[in-house]
Specification:
The chain is mainly α. 58% of the residues lie in helices and 0% in strands. InterPro entries: OpdG (IPR022085), Oxopyrrolidines_Biosynth-assoc (IPR053204).
Length: 254
């Protein structure tokens, strides 16, 4: 974890953080990138690792300034002394428009097993905070039609598949809560992807468990309907849960 990045990002979790706090964090990270352009790859990785560490300790209702930070950062132009836009070392990502390595760090974090019964309360809370953050980010940037925006709908499909397509019904309380968080925070976007029949590359979106064999390659109307039915069935079997109840209600309305 980068101490510099932590000093910039931690204040954003304070309920009293202001727009000026967000601007200071963006400016601070941009200045650091411009000061050491040769080391920008390490800076990017450390900064986004730190961001996920901070997000993992921050409940959804206090993530607003962190979301603003990432949105403003993506709109910032990092230009060197010659006026050239700074890029990731391999030249494939513009700093900050493409948020290079952010997706890589996110994918590394999503190596957890939401069905693991031995997961600690701290781990489950971290997973939920990460999920709520990426769901809010995906929904906000989809609404803005932002160029180079962050779309983590693939992660949403993985969560819904893990929770609601298991052979024995709902995978676990934790798995269903994570799927429900995607619905609560990005449900309208996911519903649109389903209506549009949005397919995922290769076999990333194929069904699992009891739905294995269905000709599903991503989001579609039949799958959305199946998820809604499975979520409602899970609600009746699991412990009472406001997040799951909210997701069931929302899926019935979308």
């Amino acid at each position: 974890m980068s101490n510099n990045a932590l000093a910039l990002l931690e204040p954003l979790t304070d309920p009293s953080a202001t727009a000026a706090t967000v601007q200071a964090a963006v400016q601070g990270l941009n200045d650091e990138a411009l000061a050491s352009p040769a080391d920008v790859d390490n800076l990017l990785w450390d900064a986004f690792e730190t961001l996920f560490d901070v997000v993992g300790r921050t409940p959804p209702e206090r993530q607003g300034r962190l979301l603003e930070f990432l949105t403003q950062l993506q709109q910032t132009k990092a230009k060197d002394a010659e006026g050239k836009v700074l890029k990731q070392g391999d030249g494939d990502g513009e700093v900050w428009a493409d948020l290079p390595t952010f997706g890589w760090v996110a994918r590394e974090k999503w190596n957890f097993d939401e069905t693991d019964p031995s997961a600690t309360p701290q781990q489950r809370a971290q997973w939920e905070n990460w999920t709520a953050f990426l769901a809010q980010l995906t929904a906000q940037w989809a609404d803005d039609a932002r160029p180079g925006g962050a779309d983590f709908s693939m992660f949403a499909l993985w969560a819904l598949r893990a929770a609601l397509e298991a052979d024995g019904g709902a995978a676990s309380q934790t798995a269903v809560r994570l799927a429900a968080l995607w619905v609560c925070y990005a449900g309208a976007h996911l519903r649109k992807l389903s209506a549009d029949g949005h397919a995922l590359p290769a076999r990333c979106g194929v069904p699992d468990g009891k739905y294995d064999g269905h000709d599903w390659w991503g989001f579609n109307e039949d799958r959305w309907r199946a998820w809604g039915e499975e979520l409602m069935a899970a609600q009746g079997k699991l412990e009472p849960d406001e997040v799951i109840q909210g997701a069931v209600k929302l899926m019935g309305e979308l």
